[in-house]
Specification:
single chain; mainly alpha; rod-shaped
C-alpha cells in the first residue's frame, strides 16, 4: 500500500511539473506573438508616417512647378527676342560633315 501511495504522489508530482512546463511554454509563445504583433504595428506606423510625409510634400512641389512654369512663360519670350539679333549676326558653324573633312 505504501508503494501505491508513493507511486501516486510521484505521478502527481511529475504531472504537475509537466503541466508547469507546458504552461510556461504557452505563456512564452503568447508573449512572443504579442511582441511580434507590436513590431508589425510599429513598422506599419512607420510606413504610414513616410506616406503622410510624402503626401505633405506634394502641395509644395506643385507650387514650385507652377512658379517655374510662370517664370518660363515670362523669361522664354524675352530670351528668344534677345537672341534673335545675335543669331542673325553670328557666322554659322559648318556642319559636321565639313568639319570631319578637315576644312575647319
Amino acid at each position: 500500500m505504501k508503494h501505491v501511495i508513493l507511486g501516486l504522489v510521484l505521478l502527481v508530482l511529475v504531472g504537475g511539473i509537466v503541466l508547469l512546463a507546458v504552461g510556461s511554454w504557452a505563456v512564452s509563445v503568447n508573449n512572443g506573438l504579442a511582441r511580434s504583433e507590436q513590431n508589425v504595428n510599429e513598422k506599419w506606423a512607420q510606413v504610414q508616417t513616410v506616406y503622410q510625409r510624402r503626401l505633405d510634400l506634394i502641395p509644395g512641389l506643385e507650387e514650385s512647378v507652377k512658379g517655374f512654369a510662370r517664370q518660363e512663360r515670362t523669361v522664354r519670350p524675352r530670351r528668344s527676342t534677345t537672341r534673335r539679333p545675335w543669331s542673325a549676326s553670328r557666322p554659322r558653324r559648318p556642319s559636321s560633315a565639313v568639319r570631319s573633312a578637315g576644312s575647319w
